[in-house]
């Protein structure tokens, strides 16, 4: 058995959840098949009566009305199974998508560094569509083919067992061919889905980076690259289509071969009187019903193989687990965070040997802590660890003296407002973006934090003020405006810890100085950590640390660092002298 079929257990809970709907659907399907099987018997009696001249016009009309009545009942039950079973497949798709989405939200940064957005989008679209199709039409076709096959063969055997054996002679060949082609179906379909993931990711990154592409006139290069990927996607699909295209004609050929054998041998039996003309007509009608399951075998195999392959790809994601260990008996998070202590913290990124941080020890108290240092000194990594974006060793970070690894991760994150280097804003209004920090905040509160972030006047100047929609990823705003909106969002939140990781790099030094001064009222009872390459604004901080090569080399206030740290003093003097010249 192909490994992809081991993922089939993922759908069992959904079958259990919607079992009543499925039972009604399959009973309706059985009713359709049962009524279809009655029609050839009516035709048999009508033909035999006509042959023997034992039927009146009224009797013939009676047979016709019986067939019409059965057709109406078949239509009603067919509508019933389509609503129930195909409706189930849509519920299956919805619930699976919700499961996948909610699981993705539990995963951490390490996972998203390994998986592309395009791959995840492909799973939530193409792969789920394959699962839905297998759980809908695939399931129906399989059940329909199975019931019709058994029933039709039974009626055929009742009419003439020997002729039935002749009719099914070609069927083992179909089973062998289907088994041979199913492995190729799995391999080619998996490759098609992977290529679709790459296409999706390439499209996403190109659209997100459209301004950069246009700035460097890379439209032709991007188009050519996309064309190459598209051609490869088509080639993979054509390989898959060849396998699919082989299944259907082969199924049809074998079904028609059976029909040919029945016409040849069944015709002789009719001529010799072994069976009546009515029996022969009924037999060919049942064989015609059997033709559909024989042809459907290839289609059903295709649907199930694609669904199983997609299930395996989805299972690979569902088996991913967050890298954070969940404490069995988490301690309550302190109501008021007065200090964060770091003790002998060393860290290297997953899969890397070199330490990014080494023996970091410090204490953050209420007020503003500034972190400075050369590029690559570990400032951002330290912020990510304090924001609990990566797991750390037990006994290295404490909140009010409590090890953070003994606290519920979600509760810790609820108390941290992060303004990262790569600002995230949403395609919504300015007010909605700021109020994410405090849903339901009053307009006056939003204006107050916007003023503290030195962005209020610029928002007021927008066409609709705070009701202005800022476009995808804030495309209508400058980098500095996006940063200040993100800062206003953090200030508005009621979270006791604010971490600003170079989140003001796109504003000028005077504005940054003004912002840090304006933030004072909002940081009075909070722990605020600010990373910046510009030292003059950070001179207002209550405490400063200087980092170099993953270590803290000096810590103290501004005056202390001017005397004790040559790097800090040199950079401060250089930056302030440049301010004077500007």
Structure notes:
- It is a single chain.
- The chain has 2 domains: 90-318, Up-down Bundle (ABC transporter transmembrane region fold); 339-581, 3-Layer(aba) Sandwich (Rossmann fold).
- The N and C termini lie far apart (73 Å).
- The model has no long low-confidence stretch (mean pLDDT 85).
- It is of the alpha/beta class.
- A hairpin with a 2-residue loop joins strand 9 (543-548) and strand 10 (551-556).
- It is elongated.
- It is built from 20 helices and 10 strands.
- Helix 5 runs antiparallel to helix 6 and helix 7 (171-208) runs antiparallel to helix 9.
- The strands form 2 sheets. A 6-stranded mixed β-sheet has the order 6-7-8-3-9-10, sandwiched between helices. It has a 4-stranded antiparallel β-sheet with strand order 2-1-4-5, covered by helices on one side.
SSE topology:
Layout: H1 12-17, H2 19-51, H3 57-106, H4 109-114, H5 117-159, H6 161-167, H7 171-208, H8 210-215, H9 219-272, H10 277-318, E1 339-347, E2 357-365, E3 367-373, H11 379-386, E4 397-399, E5 402-403, H12 409-413, E6 416-419, H13 430-435, H14 443-452, H15 456-460, H16 479-492, E7 497-501, H17 509-523, E8 527-531, H18 535-538, E9 543-548, E10 551-556, H19 558-564, H20 566-581
Parallel strand pairs: 3-8, 3-9, 6-7, 7-8
Antiparallel strand pairs: 1-2, 1-4, 4-5, 9-10
- The number of distinct structural domains comes to 2
Q: Can you tell me the CATH superfamily of the largest domain?
A: P-loop containing nucleotide triphosphate hydrolases
How many strand units?
10
CATH level-1 class of the largest domain: Alpha Beta
Strand order of the largest sheet: 6-7-8-3-9-10
Q: Over the alpha carbons, how many angstroms does the gyration radius reach?
A: 36 Å
Briefly note the structural class of the backbone: alpha/beta
Q: Hey, roughly how much beta strand do the residues contain?
A: 5-15%
**Would you give the CATH topology of the largest domain?**
Rossmann fold
- In the CATH hierarchy, what is the architecture of the largest domain at level 2? 3-Layer(aba) Sandwich
Q: Encode the helix/strand succession as letters.
A: HHHHHHHHHHEEEHEEHEHHHHEHEHEEHH
Morphology: elongated
Main beta sheet: 6 strands, mixed
How far apart, in Å, are the first and last alpha carbons?
73 Å
Unreliable residue stretches: none
